[in-house]
Structure formats: structure tokens, C-alpha cells
Amino acid sequence: MEHKIAILGASGYTGAELVRLIATHPTMKIVALSGDRKAGMEMAEVFPFLRHLDLPRLQKIEEIDFSNVDLAFCALPHATSQAVIAELPGDLKVVDLSADFRLRDPSEYEKWYGKPHSAPELQKEAVYGLTEFYRDEIKGARLVAGTGCNAATGQYALRPLIEAGVIGLDDILIDLKAGVSGAGRSLKENLLHAELSEGTHAYSAGGKHRHLGEFDQEFSKAAGRPVLVRFTPHLTPMNRGILASVYVSGDPAAVHEALASRYAAEEFLKVLPFGALPSTRDIRGSNYVHIGVIGDRVPGRAMVVAVLDNLCKGSSGQAMQNANLMLGIDEASGLRLAPVFP
Amino acid sequence: MEHKIAILGASGYTGAELVRLIATHPTMKIVALSGDRKAGMEMAEVFPFLRHLDLPRLQKIEEIDFSNVDLAFCALPHATSQAVIAELPGDLKVVDLSADFRLRDPSEYEKWYGKPHSAPELQKEAVYGLTEFYRDEIKGARLVAGTGCNAATGQYALRPLIEAGVIGLDDILIDLKAGVSGAGRSLKENLLHAELSEGTHAYSAGGKHRHLGEFDQEFSKAAGRPVLVRFTPHLTPMNRGILASVYVSGDPAAVHEALASRYAAEEFLKVLPFGALPSTRDIRGSNYVHIGVIGDRVPGRAMVVAVLDNLCKGSSGQAMQNANLMLGIDEASGLRLAPVFP
Amino acid sequence: MEHKIAILGASGYTGAELVRLIATHPTMKIVALSGDRKAGMEMAEVFPFLRHLDLPRLQKIEEIDFSNVDLAFCALPHATSQAVIAELPGDLKVVDLSADFRLRDPSEYEKWYGKPHSAPELQKEAVYGLTEFYRDEIKGARLVAGTGCNAATGQYALRPLIEAGVIGLDDILIDLKAGVSGAGRSLKENLLHAELSEGTHAYSAGGKHRHLGEFDQEFSKAAGRPVLVRFTPHLTPMNRGILASVYVSGDPAAVHEALASRYAAEEFLKVLPFGALPSTRDIRGSNYVHIGVIGDRVPGRAMVVAVLDNLCKGSSGQAMQNANLMLGIDEASGLRLAPVFP
Amino acid sequence: MEHKIAILGASGYTGAELVRLIATHPTMKIVALSGDRKAGMEMAEVFPFLRHLDLPRLQKIEEIDFSNVDLAFCALPHATSQAVIAELPGDLKVVDLSADFRLRDPSEYEKWYGKPHSAPELQKEAVYGLTEFYRDEIKGARLVAGTGCNAATGQYALRPLIEAGVIGLDDILIDLKAGVSGAGRSLKENLLHAELSEGTHAYSAGGKHRHLGEFDQEFSKAAGRPVLVRFTPHLTPMNRGILASVYVSGDPAAVHEALASRYAAEEFLKVLPFGALPSTRDIRGSNYVHIGVIGDRVPGRAMVVAVLDNLCKGSSGQAMQNANLMLGIDEASGLRLAPVFP
């Protein structure tokens, strides 16, 4: 069996991460790669770390023959993504990694992304790609929307707690530490090594980060009532990794139990023993999520810490996991790579 | 005018930072350096970055003639420090950088540090060294206790708010990101470059960090009632710097105003315009503190972010500032070094 | 088919890297792990990044039943290794990662390692594990000696040139930049993050690095006359990776041609187009070697740059490649993992 | 006494470093700052680490009244610099940090920088700014050309050896490791943290780096015959610092003696004891140079290692040192800042 794969937007980090994962996937084979500004180039020129692979040259999207493609990963910027996907064959399976199909409500999309959605029917069709919570819908979906990487981390820590009703809903606070690659391969002064290494700062603070749209949608749905979390990400001098420190009210033991039981059967979600907390170093380069719970000296308060690799489980690994489901194969295919440490 | 200075415990990072600062101080001159295990060595062997300075050789403490010393900085480990200081001449001015004299209540000391204090009279005598809040007491003190570096950062963000009564006292949360040098020059596996770089994790979580003793003492005093904050530090792959993300309830504008007015005349404490948040990169190697305030989308909630250099303003710079006061000279002497960026 | 594997010395970085690689190997299964000081512990305690794997608990070596083992990787310190291997069953296949069996001449061993070899017959039996140059001997070997990681990098750049006779033998200079993990998980002050990050320095300079013993042995053998290279490694603030800048006299085009033709059929050795030079970032976490050649403005001088991951191709990946050969399976089994970038 | 200073091109790293140094300089006062694209902005917006200083707003160069300026530092890109300086008042003291006036021979300038020099008379007038070798000329100069940072490092290691005639002139090899800030604040993909951290690579290899023009000019002058060195820089994941590993033929003891005696009276140049080698960590943020010498196992071969901070002694610190000389004050004014470690 072979699954023919196209990657649209292969010249960015999530596109390259997909190529990395597909390199050892048992059935996926890359038949087309697009990279608009770099069309005509070899991937080895754009990403020399992929030099050992036999890959098609980068093309423009319109040059790709999609009749020969089983599934397309779309790793384009938001806004571009909705325009491109609307033009693809209507029966082509698509996993989108952009923000374009994460929010089901067009007005929420406009609120967070600043302009109206151009493909609202697709927005309606798309299934939210948090695998462990939408597995059945994903299996039958044609279009799956990858989640935000921060949004995934926060949800892994919080959804089971909201569903189990073990925490207060009005004082949830997420203080998140994010690695650099989450900002992509974009030329911004504050992403230069000389600016970014050896320091840390908060960004999109004050309730402005767009992944709040996902938190609002998903937590409110899980709770059956509006839930507004506080959320502040901090840029941290590491290339990969997200650590979410989630502060909640509730009984710490109940919090731990809710997570441990909800994830007991999940291959990629590991809940540590009560009181142990995870490190981003231990999931780097992998599809695993480590989650820890500890109580506070202030009674009735708990801290949940969840870590994942933003490029893998937070985007491209999740995308592959969802693609596996859509293709009807083992969900973990190609994703059992161990983390890379040190 | 010349002030003769001894540094006890000069072979650690805070001791070396004192030497660095004294190198360009207008009146201080180092006459003695102790380093028990490294006694007999030149500082240039222990810290080659100090090679250009003409410094006395490291000695054992008992070899130092304190009659020739105007002021001693004591940069020894806690517990050791109280034993050593008890043996020093009773009229020698001392700035202690350890944890030994930060807590005024002997039972609090025992609670956080695990054994009874051996010099409770000195503990009573010592003035808490948060310069901008104890300036007058420090001027007349013989023994000043340097604060914890995390404790200083949190207090700079919170004390004016508690004093001004503009925040709720029962839901204060400090999520702190700490650089590596705060852990000292100690041989621990998790401090190795291969273990620590490229990742982050929480430590002393769950209300266990010893600097909570200082928060409790100082915030409760400022509030006139018990205040119990939540506080979690995270080890961050940068050598210097602390960033405290402090979450409070209160009117964001009032929070900003309380900080800006309280610190308007303070040379080293800079409050950014409302909505701007600081980065640790901008105070590295200096005695400056940058503080920012932003509101949240959740009404009545604010975030205060304070940054400082743990080795400088968080310990050795603070120590020098206090020493300047004790010696009756310009408080900022030797401390106007600009941060080093990049 | 299943191959039962023991790893002796599994609590260090090369041991952990072996576990990482075996995790996706098609036929290897770990049946025993030793870690003397950590015997009794779970691997997840020693290396939390391996938490997702179902692994045997760490044991003492003497507790392992080797009758149930097909092949043992020995990742112990040198000197310890020769003592341990001498006590293993005489027909057990062993891949040793230490320095103990790299030098065939007992007097050379004593010269570089400072004491006599205690198992000279084993030393004689051992095959030098530079796979692409000793493939046939390795296939039939019982005991294979892993090469030094720096020694491997230098040899990949130089052996084909010496064999082809395209460079001068008396002015070879290797300036090497080595990542931190090569120093292992040892508690040394200069390996602390605060000491090692953000700087670089030479070490074992002046012809003192022990891997010179391997260069001497192998280059002299390849040349049929004594060859003494100059070699200086520099510690570089990156966790994985070695870059060898090799300066030679010879025609640059002939140098490139000698490498390109010698490695044309080698899956893991990639020679870049003439004039392109490699980066350690592009082989991180993988078994690949990238090699580039450029001429100098000084006629008749060339520079060869070779990069590899010291923990993978430089030690544990090489060990697995050799083990595959010894077990009679596809040499690249489990080793086609793509590099991890960024 | 007060010296009124203008900095042209203050929005780059060397401009900011000048501001940092002037902040504690005893007589210099900044009266004008230019930053073409950022004209109108406060320095605190461009470089928040300078927030505590009272600085003039950034202007366009043509807005500056130079009649009120004693000395201008020109930190503009090459080519721009020659055009700007040609328009400045003819009696204004200028220290240029660009490459425009380093090469005395117009044809050499054209060869290395790809176009004819537009101000050849100024080129003739300019004094090469390697302070310790051109001190007397600098004292009387109106226009001083700052050296390349790599060029300075290599010359500190080699000039005394060439002058003393203790090394061979035809096999000098400089393998250099350079920190990131040397590339400036420019938006290039390979300078992003995600691309640059955790790895290393050679650049401008093969005799193409422009600082070779300086080596050729200065070494040939010192030797009285043409000297062509080999020189390869490697980008290293650290923000500040250059380490030059210089390989020479000659008697190691004589090499050490030549350096030690030549620099015995130089405040900023420190020669370590024979056999000790320096680290970039020990000069970070300072104007000091550390130099070490070691012999090789190959007789008659030596290695010299020199380290300096590319932004300080390699450019802005050197510029200030030269400016001090031009202003007739203590050469070390404002430059005795100790390095920052860790």
C-alpha cells in the first residue's frame, strides 16, 4: 500500500517537519511539494538537512496534478490557505496546518484574524484536529484543521478537567513558555539569534493572542457555558518546545486523576506520577505530550504543566496523526520516533 | 577617600560579580578575598575573566586581618554564613548575600531552611536589604541581609500595589522565569549545558520555594494582614536574568499608576509606558529593573512583568547599593554600568 | 526475527542514544540494561525522554543473564570496559563504544591512556569500527571497537585522500569544533550551562587529544608510512555535532573527486557539490555525514569540512550500523531517521 | 572638560555599543545620534536596554549641527560611510567603524569590495586603527579607520611574530570562530535563532573573506614582503566573541616570548602563561584581549589563540580607544569595564 502525498508550503518549518516525518512513514510517499517563491528549487537547497532524501522539486501549486494525490498537507500562511484549499479538487483529503479552519464561527474568525473568511462553507465542513478529542470525526473527515500549537498544549492540560468538572471555570490562567520555531522562518528583528538568545519576554499579552479564539470555542463547548481563560505566552530561547503552566482551582488529586484516567489509553499522552512535572527537553522532536500535576501550598489550588514539541505534536505530527486516521491506517504510523535528548 | 573591602566566598558567581562591580567603583578597594577550598589560588585561576585586575590571593577567612577592613561582603552559602558572621568583629559593617538574615522570625527561618538559626540576635539586628524600601534603615545598619533574587523581582512588582491597596490580596500569582546562574556554580546534572540548554521546566513548584518565606514576611507586613501568594519559578536557558509574570486582580491603570508614582524618583527602577512589557535582555549585566503593566481581556485583571539581572540587581548589585548607603556615599556609585546587549 | 540486545552502561548519553535508536529498529529488542550506580532504577527516572518505552529496569552487570542476549552494546568508560568485556561469554557479540579496543598496538594504548591494557588478546581480536572502511571485517567480527567521535569525523574527511594519494602527508591540520554532549554526562564545572554557553575555547590542544592515537594508527596504515597530523578540538556551545575543518595541500578538484567517488555508493556519507560546505545543523540527530570541499586562494591548498552527530554517527549510530552487519541484517536498519531541524 | 560626541548610524549594534561605553565615559557626552530609517525615534524604542540614559532623539545626518561636535563616530555600512564622511566638515575628528578606510590602496579596496572608492584622498588620509600598532599616528590623526573585528584578532596574534621574525611566513593559517553579532542587526534567514543556534558552519571560506585585504596589507607591511595567509571564519552560536586559532611554524617558546614582550606594557592585551589558552567567555563585554600559545607534538609548530569581543575591542571599544587618543586624554578612559561572566 502506498499513499501519495502532496505538501503545499514545503519551504517553511512545518512543511519541512512533515517531510522529516514522512521519511520514515511506512506508507506515505511524497509526490509533490509546493513553495511559491522557491518554485524550481530542490528541497536540499532550501533545507540541506533533507539532502539524503529523494524528493520532487518544489513547484508552484498550479503545476501540481492533484489527480495523482491521495492527501494534501497544506502548510501555507492563514488567509492564503483558505484561498488555495477552495480551489483544490472537492474530494481531495486535506489536512490544513494554518489557522484558517480552526474556528467554526465566521464572526469569531473575523474577530481574531481581522478580516472575513472567504470560504465559510469549508470552515463549516472542517473538523477541528485535536486528535484525541475529535478522533471519530477526523476518521470520516475530508478537511481537517490543525490546531494552534499553544492551543493544543493548553487543551491537553485543561479539557479533561473541564469535562470532569473538577476545576473552577472562572479563574483559569495559562502562562506559557514557547520555543522559537513557533514563529516560523520569518525575517523579524526580534527572532535574530543576537536578539533572542539569552533572554525571555512575554508577547501577545493582555488577552490578544489569536489562539484564545480556540480556547474560547473549545473550552466553552466542553463546559457547556462560556469560559474565558487568561493566557500569556513568553518567547523562550529554545528552538522547539512549549511548556504550559496552567493554574486552576480544584482539588489537586482530583485534577491528577481526571487527567490520568482520561489519557490512560492514549499512546502519545503521558501523565506523570502526582507531584512530578515535565520538561520540554523530554519530548523534543517527538509526538509525545508529558503532563504533570502538583498541588499548591494554598489549599484548593493546583498547577498542571503540559509540554509538547510545537513543530511535531503541536503541528506536523498532529497533522500526520490525523492524516493516518483519514487514510484508515494505524494512527501512530510514522510517529513513534523517540524524542532527541540531549 | 578609599573604602577597604573584603569579600568572603569570592569563588562563587556572586563573589565574582562583586569583584566585577568593584573594578570600576570610585572608592572601593578589595583588600581581602576568601575562598575556603580554593585558598591560596589567584582569582585569575578561579575566574580568568578577572585576569586584568590586581587582586589579593584567595585566603582562608581566619587568615584575614579584619582590622584593616571597612566593609565585608559575605557571599557564603546559607548556614555557613551565620556561623562566620557571628565570629567577625562586632563593629565590622557586613552585607550578607546569603539567605541567613532575610527572615526576621526564627521559626520562619527554621520552617523554610530546615534547622534552627544559630545566631538569632544577629538575625534580629539585620536589616532586610531591599534598598528602595529599607533605605533609611540600611543607612544606619551594621548588618544588611541581601534579599533572594526571585524575592526581589516579585517585590518590585508587587509592594507598591499592596501598599497602595490597588489589588486583591488573595489571588496573587507569580510565574517566574529564572536564568541559570541563580543556581550558582554547583555541580548538578541538571545544570549541565547538555541538560539545560534548549528547554525549560518548573522547579520548587507547589509552594515549596524558599523565597516564599520572604514574600510572606514582606507582603504581610506591607498589607498589615497575612498574604499568601502562589509562586512558581521556571528554569530558563539563559545565564542571567529573571522575569516575573505577576497576575493580579485590580484596575490595570491604577496598578500602573501605583508603580509609576512609587518609582518615579528611583534611579534603578524604570516603569515602562502602560501596555509595554520588558525583556530580560535589556537589563543584562546591570543594576536596572524594568517593569511593565498590561490589562487583560478579562476585566479587572492585570499583569505586571518585572525583570532584573539576578547576579547584579538581584544580589551583588543590590549588595553594593546597600554598601554604598552604609558607607555614606552616593548610593549609585559603581552601579551605573549600562546593560550589555546583545 | 528478533534480536535480543543488552546495553551495558545505559545511564550515559551514548547508552540513552542507543535506546532511542533501538526504539524504532525493526528487529532489535532490549532485554537488559545495566547502570551500576543507578541499578534498580527505571530508565524513565534516569532519562525521562524515554518514558514512553517499555524497558527493563537498570541492573548491575552481574545480574544479567547473557545466555538470553544476541548482542551487547558496551557503553562503559574506558578501562572499565576492558575489564567487563573480558568477563562476558566468549561467544557473545559485542560492540564496544569505549576507547579500549580502538588501538591495536598495546604500547600505543598505554601511551595515550596512561596504563597497560589488561586484555591484550581482546585488543587483538577487536575490529576497528569505522564501518565504511572495515565493513567486511565487521561482518565477521565478534568484538567491534567503536571509534572516537572526533576520530571518525577526521577520517571521513581524510582517508580517501590519503588512499588516493591526492594530498601531502606532512602538513595535514584538523581544526575541530565539538558539541558538548561529547564530554558525557559528567559533573565538571566547565560543562555547566553558565560556564559553557555563549563562548568557545580550545581543549586538549598541542597534540594531546587521545583521538590522535586513532589518527596515527589509521592514517599511517592507509598511507603505508607514518603520518602525524595536527589536531585541535574546540568546545562549541551546541549539544550535538562535530565540524572538522581539515586543511590540506593538494589540488582541490582532485580532493573533491577522491571523496565523491569513494563515497558515491555510501548511504550515510554525502559529498556536497564542489565549493559548498556543510553545517552541523543539517545532520543533528541522524546517522548522516555531510562533507564539503573548497579551494583556497593560495594555490594547491584545499579545505575539507566534514560534519556528523557525535552521539549518533559518531558513536551510537555507528555502533548500531556495525551491530546490523554483525547480525547479518540490512546495515541501515533503524538508522534512516532524518535529521531534526530546527 | 567635556567632549561632544556624535554617533552616525546609531541604530546598529556597534552604534549601540558606543552608547553603552560612553554611558560611563568620564568626559564624552553624546550630542547627536543619527539613524536614517529610524530618524525621529527615541533610542529607547530602538534599543530598550538604553532606556535609563538621557539621549538625543535619532536624527537624519543632514539635520545634525556638526559645529557643536568634537568627534564623530561613524558606524554606517561601508560605501555609505565614504559618501557621508566626504560631506562632513573637513576639520571634524572622525572615527569610522566601516570597512571604507581600512585599505590604503584604492585597487585593493576595489578588489575586495567590488567597486571603486569614491573618496580616495580620504582613504589616503585615514590612519589604520589598530591602536597598539598605530598609536602615534592615531594621536595626530583626523580620520581613523576602525579595523575589521576578525582582522584585529588575527593581527593581535600574528603581528609581533612577523615583526620579530620568529615564524615562517608561508604557512600561516587562521581558523577563526566568530560570534553572531559580528553579522550585525541584519534580517537574514541564517541569522535567525532557529537556524543559527545549536550548530556551526564555515563562511566566506576559500580565501574570500574581505578581512583578508587587511591581513595582506598589514602583514606584508610588517614583513617587508608579501604575506598571504589562509583564513577561514566559522559562525558560532554565541552573541559576542571571536576566537582565532592561529597555526604557525616556529619555536613555540620564541613565539610566546615575542608576544609576551611586545605586549608587556599594553593595558588591554594579556598574554597568558605558556601552554594556557583563552576562552571568549573571559573577555565578553570588555576591551581586553587574551592571547595564549602552545606547542604542538609536531616539532617546530605552534598554535596561538587570541580572543576578543567583536563589538567592543573588535570595533566600538577600539573606536573609543582611538578617540581617546585623538582627544588627547587617557587612552583607557571608559574602557576599564570588567568582562561580564557568566
TrEMBL record, chains A, B, C, D:
Residues 4-141 form the Semialdehyde dehydrogenase NAD-binding domain. GO terms for cellular component: cytoplasm. The active site is at C149. It is found in: Cytoplasm. It is an enzyme of class 1 (oxidoreductase). Pathway: Amino-acid biosynthesis; L-arginine biosynthesis; N(2)-acetyl-L-ornithine from L-glutamate: step 3/4. Its EC number is 1.2.1.38. InterPro entries: AGPR, AGPR_dimerisation_dom, AGPR_type-1, NAD(P)-bd_dom_sf, Semialdehyde_DH_NAD-bd. The keyword Chaperone does not apply. It catalyses: N-acetyl-L-glutamate 5-semialdehyde + phosphate + NADP(+) = N-acetyl-L-glutamyl 5-phosphate + NADPH + H(+). GO terms for molecular function: N-acetyl-gamma-glutamyl-phosphate reductase activity; NAD binding; NADP+ binding. Belongs to the NAGSA dehydrogenase family. Type 1 subfamily. Catalyzes the NADPH-dependent reduction of N-acetyl-5-glutamyl phosphate to yield N-acetyl-L-glutamate 5-semialdehyde. This is N-acetyl-gamma-glutamyl-phosphate reductase. It comes from Cereibacter changlensis JA139. The gene is argC.
